[in-house]
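From the methods appendix. Each design record in this collection lists the tokenized structure first, followed by the designed amino acid sequence. Records were kept in a plain field format so they could be parsed without special tools. The example shown here is representative of the layout used throughout.

RECORD:
FOLD TOKENS (104 positions):
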């Protein structure tokens, strides 16, 4: 029985590795096309006007990212809350608690 669990875990690791090599790269390529065509992440069927020239650096879409609602929300609210000591302790405590196995 123990050997079956090990082979099952090995197969899961190999399957994950294969998916990381193929699917993840493909999804990144599709997302790069979406960004280059100035489409928002929530409604990719809609196109947005390109950002003004003064907001762009050559070869970079910083101007587009600056207007992104999700990025502004994460930068302004989410990250500062996550970086507080009580939240860090709570996250580590919850993570350790979820890893405890009752069958041991």
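DESIGN:
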């Amino acid at each position: 029985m123990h050997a079956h669990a090990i082979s099952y875990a090995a197969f899961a690791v190999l399957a994950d590795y294969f998916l990381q090599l193929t699917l993840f790269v493909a999804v990144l390529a599709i997302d790069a096309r979406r960004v280059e065509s100035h489409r928002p992440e929530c409604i990719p069927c809609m196109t947005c006007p390109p950002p003004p020239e003064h907001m762009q650096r050559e070869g970079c879409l910083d101007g587009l990212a600056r207007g992104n609602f999700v990025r502004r929300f994460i930068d302004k609210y989410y990250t500062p809350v996550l970086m507080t000591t009580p939240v860090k302790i709570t996250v580590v405590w919850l993570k350790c608690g979820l890893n405890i196995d009752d069958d041991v």
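APPENDIX NOTE: The radius of gyration is 21 Å.
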